[in-house]
Amino acid sequence: MRFTVCTTDTSSRETTALSLSFITKQVKGFVSRLKMEGIGVLVTCPMTSYLEEQLQNRFKLLRPWDSSSSSEFLGQNLPSVRAVVCNAACGADSELIDSLPSLEIVASYSVGFDKIDLVKCEERGIRVTNTPDVLTDDVADVAIGLALATLRKICAGDRFVRSGLWRDGDFQLGSKFSGKSVGIVGLGKIGTAIALRAEAFGCSISYHSRSQKPYPSYKYFPNIIDLASNSQILIVACSLTKETRHIINREVINALGPKGVLINIGRGAHVDEPELVSALLEGRLGGAGLDVFENEPEVPEELFGLENVVLLPHVGSDSVETSMAMVDLVIGNLEAHFCKKPLLTPVI
């Protein structure tokens, strides 16, 4: 590339310098994009079209499900795979990580990273990122939405009208949400956002967390059973760890009681699902609003016929706006890594 520069005064020289600076940046950006186009990015399962478009525009996008044999596909593309993009459903386990000798980074299209083998990544020096913060509001909104839908029987009422039953009699009344005692399991960013929303409904807030938080108006319970015993609505919003797996067990459910409602927007494995099902069928629990399940997309069929249960297909963070923001974070982290810049949202 050749430039001929003629200057006659200070102003024109400054303008030329700015132009050259702009051109230099553009050229460097173009060269960087060319270098990244050969980088293989393996997506573990179908995600949003916007994510795949953005990856396709920058990298060599690898989609195993496009091939009749995923193992054959991986075998052909192993040398070029330097990044994996996964989500809360399809992560990066030790088997996948071991099969990718050139892997440098795992970018999770999710705030959670329980489906990623972090120990294996640390052993190999593989970076891991997630998409925190941008989805906080959406998940908190859905938590309150599930509580309202479950208590006020919104979904059941919708079916009642659509089926024509309204002509035959009145709909069974639900219970109010305003003023209820709300217990939150995990008072992190999402848990705090839920608490703020519930406060607007005049709800009293209690919580169980690894440590007491600096919120004097919220009552802290170091024991989750005590929290459940003192809550009319129990909302699960903690991270999934070995310690929190099945944190909602039979004892906690019994403590919540036949008038209590369980809301889960965390992870399916937070709840002992068979115990939850039996408690609902036996009337030991008043209701449940569930966005997540232990073996997604499989859901216990016993729940389908229960009017006191509201079910969502793990869409707590899946608004159009938030999905795009999450994609931008995934792309930003990948570009930062391959441009040798600090990661935007590092896990390790």
Automatic annotation (TrEMBL):
Domain of life: Eukaryota
Protein name listed in UniProt: Uncharacterized protein
Classification lineage: Eukaryota, Viridiplantae, Streptophyta, Embryophyta, Tracheophyta
